[in-house]
Amino acid sequence: MTLMSRFLVVTALVCAPLFSLAHAQDAKPSITPAAAAQGKTLTVFAAASMKNALDEANAAFTAKTGVKVTSSYAASSALAKQLEQGAPADAFISADTDWMNYSIGKKTINESTRVNLLGNKIVLIAPKDSKLANVTIGKGFDLAKLAGDGKIATGDVKAVPVGKYAKAALEKLGSWQAAEPKFAMAESVRAALALVSRGEAVLGIVYETDAKVDPGVKIIGAFPADSHPAIIYPVAATVTAKPDSAPYLAFLRSAAAKSIFEKYGFTFLIKSTS
To answer: What is the pTM of this model?
Structure first.
């Protein structure tokens, strides 16, 4: 081997590891969008009646994007007041339009992001072992007589959406005045549902979606849709929302979310996106 050949071999042996190291340092691992989003979180304030369906929708969003969603569930009135007091949240889902309008008026909601997303129904429930069944609800419906000496549970009629819908329906049907003294007003629809499920109230007025997820109760009657204002769930980003709130709200409008919400009994009010 000539002196020149030896020089070229030695040079190759020395430079090859350095060349490989340089390329290894330049190479960047492939990162999926979900992996890149690890550590990102969103906080959503949502009406208590959304819990089961929204928990599943949030899990699907996290699986798709890697962004974790933490939901705080309560009566829409309580959540709107918390937002007004500066509680941190990225999105708000109300069980009626009044409390969303209230929050917009208080400048806590980005109005341009608002969508009337879901619909629901109110029903009359009883404990699962109750002898009551197949109650026809219409004009002149005697709810007080049906309850007997027992209590009727619903949300606070002055603030909690389900209670407001219940009172409106009973007033239109001519049943409110006689039944009012028998009402046990709860802080949320889920609290009212629990009173019936535990047998502490003989009847309750809740959303159909809530009644369907509690095995301790049964639906014994449905209120006519024209007996109360339409039950609408608006959703919107807050004025302090993080950038990831935009894809989250987009996901809630998607076909994937639609199938989840409809599975739990909600009506999807908009045309879903892909």
So the answer is: 0.83
